[in-house]
Write a structure and sequence with these properties.
The chain has about 290 residues and is an alpha/beta fold. It contains ten helices and seven strands. The protein folds into two domains: about 80 residues, no CATH class; about 180 residues, Rossmann fold, CATH 3.40.50.
């Protein structure tokens, strides 16, 4: 016999269906004015809060989850369209930059109208002795040489990559650290996407990467570590420890939407479908702006 909680879930599914119809209709019918867009986003935000509350109270949340998945799949193009227009995003791979996850990044940039500012694919493990030799006599490297300072070196490199301008550390270490180099160093980044395709690292390389992640996330713009659902070795714990947001299912529309929302300024957190996604599938919906979000 169905109880009240089942009816709550059913009502949630019906509400979602209505939202799907509205938003998909908007996407098909063409542009809408800012006031209508603002209203739609307010309704989506209101529903998301209700869904979170209901899921915490109901044992019958499978129906809600199915409806939410349908909602994301159907409305994804409308929800991400132009959301990152004008944003210049850096991309950092730790390891190989080839493969499906690179395609997923290109897709979410295209969907949201973001631009890739620069891409760096880093070679790991690092050779600390070689890095120290290369940095010898470099004024920018004062206090950053030596095995004991490898985390500080990583942090300084992360900050340089995000802030742009003069980048003496990257200029010096490009040959030792970088496998793929796309885009110039000068312009500041509006955000960064980080991917670890290499196996988990140990020792000095692990400490170097911890510093790098921390530096990427320390300059006041969004920093998001991402991976695919079937990643052999999850990096989300390492991203979280360095203060980055993470998304563990960027190969899905839900994951790409979460990444876009984070790059647009949503609350820092760990999102996705795995146990490490402590903050749920999606960030809280951003508060609509006067211009319609």
């Amino acid at each position: 016999m169905f109880d009240l909680r089942y009816h709550v879930a059913s009502l949630a599914a019906v509400f979602l269906a209505l939202i799907i119809g509205i938003l998909v209709g908007v996407g098909i019918s063409g542009p809408v004015d800012n006031q209508k867009t603002k209203f739609l986003e307010e309704q989506v935000a209101k529903y998301q809060r209700q869904l979170d509350q209901n899921a915490a109270q109901s044992d019958s949340d499978a129906l809600e989850q199915q409806a939410a998945l349908a909602y994301i799949n159907e409305t994804y193009p409308v929800l991400v369209k132009d959301r990152l227009r004008g944003k210049q995003i850096a991309v950092v791979f730790v390891g190989d930059a080839k493969g499906g996850i690179h395609s997923q990044i290109n897709r979410l940039f295209l969907d949201s109208d973001a631009q890739q500012l620069r891409l760096r694919a880093l070679k790991v493990p690092i050779d600390v002795r070689q890095l120290n030799s290369t940095l010898k006599g470099q004024p920018a490297a004062v206090g950053l040489r030596g095995r004991q300072n490898v985390e500080a070196l990583g942090r300084a490199l992360g900050q340089e990559l995000m802030l742009g301008g003069d980048t003496p550390l990257w200029d010096s270490l490009n040959a030792e650290l970088v496998d793929i180099h796309e885009g110039a160093n000068k312009a500041p980044a509006d955000g960064v996407v980080v991917v670890r395709t290499a196996d988990p690292q140990r020792g000095t390389t692990s400490r170097f990467l911890r510093g790098l992640y921390s530096g990427l996330g320390s300059v006041g713009v969004p920093a998001v570590g991402i991976e695919q659902t079937d990643a052999a070795h999850s990096a989300t714990k390492a991203f979280a420890q360095a203060g980055l947001s993470s998304v563990d299912n960027v190969d899905t529309r839900v994951g790409r939407l979460a990444t876009v929302l984070l790059l647009a300024g949503a609350d820092v957190g760990q999102y996705g479908v795995k146990k490490s996604a402590e903050d749920g599938a999606l960030p809280p919906w951003p508060t609509p702006t006067a211009e319609g979000g």
